[in-house]
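Sequence in, structure out.
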Amino acid sequence: MPDPRRILFAALAAGALAGSSAQAEAPAGNALNVGYSIAFWAIPFGHTRYEGTVTPETYSAKMHFETSGIVSLFWKSKIDATVNGGIGPHTITPVVYDSYSQDRDKPVQRVKVTFGKSVPETLAEPPYNTTKYPVTDEEKKGTLDPMSAITAILSGVKVTGSNPCGTGVQVFDGRRRYDVGFTYKKDEHVALKNGPFNGTAHLCQIHYKQIAGYKQKIVKEGKSLPDMFVDFAEVPAPHTPNKYYLVAVKLWAPMTLGTVTATLDELKVDGAPPRA
């Protein structure tokens, strides 16, 4: 499956009113907090948390991932990322994506991707080699950063009448270019044991396609990625463009030695669990 570290929302400035010192209020939005426990063979090895706000016109978000438990003895990793941009019922336009990651005792790696021009611009500190696995300017056009891609999925801007999971996203993360797509399978009941969700979800298969850039390192070069699946639930959020969040309740990928899972363990809208 794609690297889980890769894997698995802002206010407008108010203008002065004519003839008054009062200011216009920023558009109302809905804040979303979700957390996931990541495990292999039911043994937890990491946790990721997403916090964001989507209004009818804007979004901003931050995310934190960190390994834990015995896995940290072999693979110790941490990543923090932020993003902001504009959004509509069927559109999303990132402005700036900024991430900081660290593997074990290596230096912190910053990757910042700035949008606004026809081709996204990347700042890497320290710099890394972009010629060994190049991504062309043409391949970068029309893409989203990883955080905006997650926001696009969560806010349902890619949902269609025939695909409640969404049509997928095209991603450039500063190093690699890839596509993530979804095939809708069926609706099913999902009840998380001691978890924050019990209800109907859309079962979808996930499709990951490497386009260019650095290779993912979860499976050996030339080997096929395992089948990947996700259960999506529609969570009411009246101040977002589509009036709901499309939250991944559980993601999993059966592999030869066991199953990797990411299971929802926190779900809040505006600081409280959503109403049933």
